[in-house]
Structure formats: C-alpha cells, structure tokens
Specification:
There is one protein chain. With 187 residues, this protein is of the alpha+beta class. It has a single domain, classed as Endonuclease Chain A (Endonuclease, Chain A). The protein is 30% helix and 25% strand. The chain is built from five helices and eight strands. An eight-stranded mixed β-sheet has the order 1-7-6-5-2-3-4-8, with helices on both faces. Strand 5 and strand 6 form a beta hairpin. It is globular. The N terminus is likely disordered.
Amino acid sequence: MVERDDPSTQSEGDDPIPRDRLVALVERATGSRLPVGTDRVMLSTRGDDVGPPALVSEALPRTGSVVGVVPQLVPSLLPRTPEAGAALDSPPDVDAIDARIVLVGTARDRFRGPAGAALRPLLTEWPVDLHVAPGDSPVGILLVDDRVIVGWFDTEGLAAVLVTDEAAVREWAVGSVQRYLAAADPL
C-alpha cells in the first residue's frame, strides 16, 4: 500500500481529490491495495460522465439486500414524490429487498428534524428499516448483495463513489456496518 495522509483528517480544500481520499481510506482500512483501473473496482467522482449518484443507481437494481450507513441524504437517490395519480418511482421488485440503513451525522439530523416529516411518507412504500446512530463520518457504506458501495461525502454531497466486490473491502465494510448497527436505535 502506498503511504498517504489519513484522508479523514484532511480539509476539503487540500489535495488530494475526493476520489484519492476515498481510495486511500479504503486501502488503509483494509490493509490492501485496491486494483483501481480494473473491472473489480468502479470509481466515480463529481464531474465524471457517470457521476457518483448515477454509479450508485446502476448498482442498486435487481438487488436483494442493502445494508449500510449513510451520513448524508442524496436527493437524487431518494424516492420521488409522485404526481397526482402516479405510482412512486421504485424498482419492480422493491418488495423483495431487505434494506436496513443507519443514518448518522447530517442524514440523522435531517431525518429527525422538519425535513423528516416530508421524507418519511416517501419511504412508506419502500421496505427500509431505518435506524439512527451517534457519530458522523465523511464516508457512507452500503453492502449491496455481494458488492460494496463506499461513498465520500463533502459539503456539496456525494463527491466520490467506489463499487467493488473485493473480499478485503467487503470484510472491512461488514465490520463497519455491524458496529453502527449495534449502536443504532430504530427510527
């Protein structure tokens, strides 16, 4: 592994870019070098042709299980308010998804605050068990079937995303998500 400064302690104005911070954080956490640039690791950063929210959206269809920790709510990834008489946007097999999400930081605060009143009805059609936990992080983690989605958040939202099925990343992600779930309370 290439030695890098701890990305979680750098300010957003510092080099490196969010993509580099994300890769460095995951490599440090797993103790292994990611095969970036191969089909085993997909990366996206704000400004790419396929931006972070689009990469996440591509990874979610036909998913059986989503378990994770989310520090910020990304509006483009939330269900949309249906127009009068229209159905809520959802994958065709949404009822088959096992989804448990822990909200931390800004996401927890927004969901508990006035915005939560508007968001909760949107999620009633989605089979999502929401939890809240103390703490905050610039990183969100989703375990999506056999893949892991790791996102780097900054003040503007989702800045970079990594999607992989690497065993070392999955092991780290499972441990991280389990620690948050153990500390979480149902919403």
